[in-house]
TrEMBL record:
<dbReference type="Pfam" id="PF20620">
    <property type="entry name" value="DUF6805"/>
</dbReference>
<dbReference type="InterPro" id="IPR046544">
    <property type="entry name" value="GH146_SB_dom"/>
</dbReference>
<dbReference type="InterPro" id="IPR012878">
    <property type="entry name" value="Beta-AFase-like_GH127_cat"/>
</dbReference>
<feature type="region of interest" description="Disordered">
    <location>
        <begin position="663"/>
        <end position="687"/>
    </location>
</feature>
<dbReference type="Pfam" id="PF16375">
    <property type="entry name" value="DUF4986"/>
</dbReference>
<feature type="domain" description="Non-reducing end beta-L-arabinofuranosidase-like GH127 catalytic">
    <location>
        <begin position="36"/>
        <end position="410"/>
    </location>
</feature>
<feature type="domain" description="Glycoside hydrolase GH146 substrate-binding">
    <location>
        <begin position="652"/>
        <end position="788"/>
    </location>
</feature>
<dbReference type="Pfam" id="PF07944">
    <property type="entry name" value="Beta-AFase-like_GH127_cat"/>
</dbReference>
<feature type="compositionally biased region" description="Basic and acidic residues">
    <location>
        <begin position="669"/>
        <end position="678"/>
    </location>
</feature>
<dbReference type="GO" id="GO:0016787">
    <property type="term" value="F:hydrolase activity"/>
</dbReference>
<protein>
    <submittedName>
        <fullName>Glycoside hydrolase family 127 protein</fullName>
    </submittedName>
</protein>
<dbReference type="InterPro" id="IPR008928">
    <property type="entry name" value="6-hairpin_glycosidase_sf"/>
</dbReference>
<dbReference type="InterPro" id="IPR049046">
    <property type="entry name" value="Beta-AFase-like_GH127_middle"/>
</dbReference>
<feature type="signal peptide">
    <location>
        <begin position="1"/>
        <end position="23"/>
    </location>
</feature>
<feature type="domain" description="DUF4986">
    <location>
        <begin position="548"/>
        <end position="628"/>
    </location>
</feature>
<dbReference type="Pfam" id="PF20736">
    <property type="entry name" value="Glyco_hydro127M"/>
</dbReference>
<keyword id="KW-0378">Hydrolase</keyword>
Length: 792
């Protein structure tokens, strides 16, 4: 009987919607449906086709397991084990990826999987009866508390709204890209569920709740409003405005130092959607300020941002080239969404310039070109490397966005507005502009060459304006129509308008001479990247040091390239006058026949004379360079005298380190299963800290790698005051009682080491390190925690 009821409910769910297959251009009014843009042979086409093969390797029933569990139904497969506590987030990404890639390729196997997932999710919705389609482990206790107006329980979960946001987005995308009526109704049902959950939260408690990462919840509610016109959804989108960020961005104040980057970017994607849908000037202003701040002040040459998932302060810029954990793929995925949105509101070439930079150098580079694995961190450290995921393992957030990335390459190549067609990207492709009865074919060998050719096919003469981007990296361009030069008046980072009556077979040629430039690391001019046109040129450093485990396993920290760090002084350096170095670079010589690779005679020392510069997106399975230490000989001599010893000490400590936690930073603490009570965190002198007060505590699960002779190394500020008496425990055994108040009396950081008795750790792969405050005292602040081996 229950199965019959579910069957009837599913039929009603499917029939009740007015969704349409062409939903993409309805929600994003300047875009073409992905199905109307066919990629031709290029690295992007290869990446998309490969990603289809990868997506079809995933076990759909295992991805669905969290949702069936939450609905009280029996799963057909086991949940994936990696990243416990985030069970459910990948399923939503996967649903988006299936819809996106189906729209882009027409592959029916993808649609069959999407429809199967939606059918199973619809069963979950019917079984629950409240519209919820999520997989947050133990989530019902939280949702009940929120309905009661109490947000405090959210801190007992790992980013639950972020988790469910992925399913919101997956359901929406099943309609937007693939026209699924079931997906549309499930999406709106879940929107109604969410409104009910937050209905009793006061504005104050709502703001407190939004301190916990929530993805782009404001974006999906704005989309629900765009789909239905129902005011309640726009009201909900505004309720998901985190005023800590919004108010600062609106006032033109950058408060992003040491903040978790991918927590902030999706919020601003939502700000932009509210601005666009509601024509709200304040939300537009806040979104624009954030984009300018991140793109121009906080992004690396590849278009990515952050290190250790956090925005660095200007004073800590060197951490970008010191740390293993460089820009995170998810951040760039979301920055591209924000860029598309701002471009819809104001189609300026500077948005497309950034989009191109990030697409070629970061997004394209994060897929392995053979097995299709996804990258989490792209290290900017000279001489480091990257690791890749594999199907049905390593369910990182960047696996989720990676699933989506490579199907959307056709989304921003062309946009339209009335009778105007903009060419934003130079990716070989065919556009079928059905509304106008026009086909446009773009062919090129870009970015090897800076020439792109556009052929127009139309059964009858058509008048429209063709706008070609004059890239910001190109000084001057040449335009020809049917082989004849056309006078144009354009400057870098603008559009060239060709407004005329077009006939079948007309050919437009755009010639953009490639220019070689160097670009300094933000706030650290002694490190530079080398670019040719929009493409970052890197170099392989094969054999410079071992490169362990390129393909990640399912272990907790496998997304981090944890192998040995190489001293920057053992990598190629650019020592010389910057102007002379640039002159040599601009005389680079091609390697081989038609390869996109170059040698630069006389640029490097003899040891590195054979270095080959090539697009970073082609470099995989090896250590590499994308940032180079660049100084005059005199600057380098002075720098080396001070920095080499510091570098050697840093690397020596890294080699001794078994495990480490950057206290006060979201992802490292989550990775180490932090538990806490009466604990707070912040930043001081550019470094994050955590403490606990009045009997409170915080703890981390840290790996020992089976060692029984370790030290605990803790960083403190050397001039603390007040009551700071606390215990440091290993698996609830007191390792040391500490009091840091007035202990060192110096205004600098102090690293204290505590020997761990072998009986505390012998035979254990992990231990729990706990900082327990005493009554009326504070434990900390603790600025860093590290398990290390003794010096040899």
């Amino acid at each position: 009987m229950k199965l019959n009821l579910i069957s009837c409910a599913l039929t009603a769910l499917a029939l009740a919607s007015s969704g349409a297959v062409s939903a993409q251009d309805r929600l994003y009014d300047n875009s073409f449906p992905l199905s109307d843009v066919t990629l031709l042979d290029s690295p992007f086409r290869h990446a998309m086709d490969l990603n289809v093969d990868v997506l079809l390797q995933y076990d759909t029933d295992r991805l669905l397991a969290p949702y069936l569990k939450a609905a009280g139904l029996t799963p057909k497969g086991e949940s994936f084990s990696c990243w416990d506590g985030l069970d459910g987030h990948i399923g939503g990404h996967y649903l988006s990826a299936l819809a996106i890639h189906y729209a882009a390729t027409g592959n029916e196997a993808l649609k069959e999987r999407m429809d199967y997932m939606l059918g199973q999710l619809a069963m979950c919705a019917v079984a629950r009866g409240d519209g919820y389609v999520g997989g947050v482990p133990g989530g019902d206790d939280l949702w009940t508390a929120l309905r009661g107006g109490d947000e405090s329980k959210i801190w007992n979960y790992w980013v639950p709204w972020y988790n469910v946001h992925k399913m919101y987005a997956g359901l929406r995308d099943s309609w937007v890209y693939a026209g699924s009526k079931v997906g549309r109704n499930l999406f709106l049902g879940m929107c109604d569920w969410g409104i009910d959950v937050i209905s009793n939260l006061s504005d104050e408690r709502m703001e407190a709740m939004l301190g916990n990462e929530f993805g782009g919840m404001n974006e999906v509610y704005a989309d629900a409003y765009a789909m239905t016109g129902d005011q309640k959804y726009l009201d909900a989108a505004r309720r998901f405005t985190h005023h800590w960020l919004y108010d600062s961005m609106l006032a033109g104040v950058d408060n992003l130092d040491n903040k978790h980057a991918n927590t902030q970017v999706p919020k601003v994607v939502g700000f932009q959607r509210v601005a666009e849908i509601a024509d709200d000037a304040d939300y537009a202003k806040a979104s624009e300020f954030f984009w300018n701040t991140v793109v121009y002040n906080r992004s690396l040459s590849i278009g990515g941002n952050s290190r250790r998932e956090h925005f660095a302060s200007a004073s800590d810029a060197k951490s970008y080239v010191d740390d293993r954990e460089g820009p995170e793929s998810c951040n760039t995925n979301n920055m591209l969404k924000l860029t598309e949105g701002l471009f819809r509101m104001s189609p300026e070439a500077r948005y497309a310039d950034f989009y191109e930079r990030a697409l070629y150098n970061h997004i394209l580079s994060t897929q392995h070109p053979h097995h299709g694995g996804y990258v989490y961190f792209t290290s900017a450290r000279p001489g480091h490397y990257r690791v890749y995921s594999q199907p049905n393992s390593a369910m990182w957030c960047c696996v989720g966005t990676g699933m989506e990335n490579h199907g959307k390459y056709g989304q921003f190549i062309y946009t339209h507005n009335g009778d105007s067609l903009r060419v934003n990207l130079f990716i070989p492709s065919v556009l079928d502009w059905k509304e106008k009865g026009i086909k446009l074919t773009q062919r090129n060998n870009y970015p090897v060459e800076g020439v792109s050719e556009f052929t127009i096919n139309t059964p009858e003469a058509k008048h429209f304006s063709l706008l070609l981007r004059h890239p910001g990296w190109c000084d001057a361009v040449t335009v020809k129509v049917n082989g004849k030069p056309v006078k144009t008046f354009s400057k870098p980072s603008s559009y060239i308008a060709l407004d005329r009556e077009w006939r079948d077979g007309d050919v437009v040629t755009l010639d953009m001479p490639m220019k070689v430039t160097v670009e300094e690391l933000p706030n650290l001019p002694s490190y530079v990247s080398i670019l040719r046109g929009p493409v970052v040129l890197g170099a392989r450093l094969e054999g410079i040091a071992p490169t362990p485990r390129i393909v990640a396993d399912d272990s907790r920290w496998a997304h981090i390239a944890g192998g040995e760090l190489v001293s920057v002084f053992d990598t190629p350096l650019l020592i010389g006058d910057r102007g002379k170095l640039l002159k040599k670079l601009r005389a680079m010589q091609p390697v081989g026949n038609g390869e996109f690779a170059f040698k630069v005679p006389g640029l490097f020392s003899d040891k590195w004379a054979d270095i080959v510069l090539e697009p970073f997106y082609n470099i995989h399975d090896t250590r590499y360079m994308i940032y180079w230490l660049s100084m005059t000989p005199g600057q380098y001599k002075n720098y080396m005298a001070k920095a080499r010893k510091d570098e050697e000490m840093r690397l020596a400590l890294d080699r001794r380190t078994v495990d480490a936690v950057n206290t006060g930073e979201q992802q490292p603490e989550a990775d180490h299963f932090m538990e806490h009570k009466s604990s707070s965190s912040g930043n001081y002198n550019g470094e994050p800290w955590r403490d606990a007060s009045n009997g409170g505590y915080f703890s981390y699960k840290m790996k020992t790698s089976g060692a029984d002779n370790l030290l605990l190394r803790v960083r403190y500020w050397g001039n603390e005051s007040g009551n700071r008496d606390f215990d440091i425990c290993i698996d609830d055994k007191v390792l040391a009682s500490e009091n840091t108040s007035g202990k060192w009396k110096k205004d600098e950081f102090v690293d204290q080491e505590y020997a761990i008795p072998s009986e505390f750790i012998s035979g254990k792969d992990f231990v729990t390190v706990k900082f327990q405050s005493k009554k009326n005292n504070v434990a900390g602040g603790i600025f860093h925690v590290r398990l290390i081996r003794p010096e040899k």
